[in-house]
Structure formats: structure tokens, C-alpha cells
Amino acid sequence: MRHEADNMIRVCGEAIDDELAYCERFDVVYQISNQCINYDVAYWDKHAAKKGGEIGKTLNRLRISMAAPYCESLLDFGIGFGEFIEEWGQRVIRMNGQTDRLHAAFGYDINPVAVAWLQKRNLFVDPFLGPVKVEGWTMWDVLEHVPNPSDVLSLLQENQFLFLSLPIIEKPSKVRASKHYKPGEHLYYFTRSGFLRFMDFSGFDLLEENDLENRAGREDIRSFSFRKRGGYLGRRGRTAH
After folding, report:
1. Domains of the chain
2. Looking at residue 235, what is its pLDDT?
């Protein structure tokens, strides 16, 4: 049910102050207001300025190494400035000698600049309009930005894979001391155990997790691989449209 876990968080949550509340069940601190910053050209340009950096290259290699053993086609939900999609496409070319929609990474975003970037490449897919026929989704540094995470997670179909990274806090009391405390941008602050409970409640089985992004130069980030609950069917090999 859409919003079920999000509603559970907010029903059981108790206000810490005027801005933040805490839900013990999922060990998560969340912003009381769901109002977000504007995801616009300034946001795109800020992140696009990092393109080509060594950390970014390393992150994309690590992220591809997580998803590639499970999937050939992906939906990247929240594309940043498109670098992961580009790297996935280059991988396909190296493997097959050409681009191939059966092995492509498609994308969805709410930033108009990102939408235009995707549409120009014929890679934009809106999962809110119906099921996306890919083997897996990626959400790199995205879920903490989403006002209603369960609304998005409910869009994945049974047996689809989900690969994501997000900030993980050590203790709820340390949220404001975290470099990832970004009011209006980061709306949820999970501990590891709380996040895993949240994902289990949302219908996902954990496949693996790691802290490799920290070793690449980031701080307090964990990466996870999940599968939406259901009987394993193997590669489905269908393409988005």
C-alpha cells in the first residue's frame, strides 16, 4: 500500500523540535515538513561541475559492479547529472559494440534539466505512468530526498532488483552533527538497522550491502542491493518503453 511505511513513521514519530521528529520503530529521524528545495538548473549545474572527478569515476565503477551481476537493463530513479547512465551505456558499448535498449539504463527525474537531458537521448521513462519493464532500479543518493519513499518503492514490481546508496547515521541524536544534515534536501535520516527494517516492511529482501563508497572518499554512506519480494524468475530481458 502506498505511503504505508511512511505513514507508520509519521504516526509513531515524536517531535524532537519544530523541525525534526523521531520514529523508534524504524530508528529514523525525519523532517516534519515535506517541503523540498527546488531541483532546477542551479542544482544540476552544482553537481555537473563534479563530472569527470576521480571520486565520481570510482563511485560509478563500484555502482556498476553492484548492479551488473544481477541486471542488464535498469531504471536510474533520480539521475543526478546523468553520469551513471553514461557510464552504464559505455559499458554496454564495450560489451556489445553498440547501444542496445535491452541492456540500457533509462532514467527518471523531477528536475526539468535532467528530464530534457534524458528525453534528448530517448531514455526518459516515467514509472508513475505504469510498470517499467526493466530488471532493476538504481537510486544513488536519492531515497533520503523523496517526501514519500514508500510511494516510490511501491512502483517496483515483484522480483525487480533495487540498488541504492544513502547516508546512514550512527545515532539519531547525532543528526545535526552529520555532514549529511541538509534541511529541505535530506528528509529522512536512517540508522542502518532502522533502514533495513523499513525496507523489509516495504517488501524487499536484502541481498548484500557494503561501505565501499566510504573507501572511495565519501563519509557515512552505505550501499545496498535488494529484491522486491516474490519468487525468483531470473533475468527477464524486457525493455523499457
Report:
1. 4-228 (3.40.50.150)
2. 37
What contacts 151, CB < 8 A, 6 or more positions away? 2, 3, 6
| Average pLDDT estimate for 124-143 | 97
d(CA 47, CA 44): 5
Q: Which residue has the higher pLDDT, 149 or 13?
A: 149
Question: What does the alpha-carbon distance between residue 10 and residue 29 come to, in Å, rounded to a whole number?
Answer: 10
Which pLDDT belongs to residue 3?
A: 58
Residue 166 has pLDDT above 60, yes or no: yes
When pLDDT is averaged across residues 51-62 and rounded to a whole number, the result is 90
**Cell numbers that stand for 222 in this block:** 552505505
Look at the block and give the residue holding cell 538548473: 41
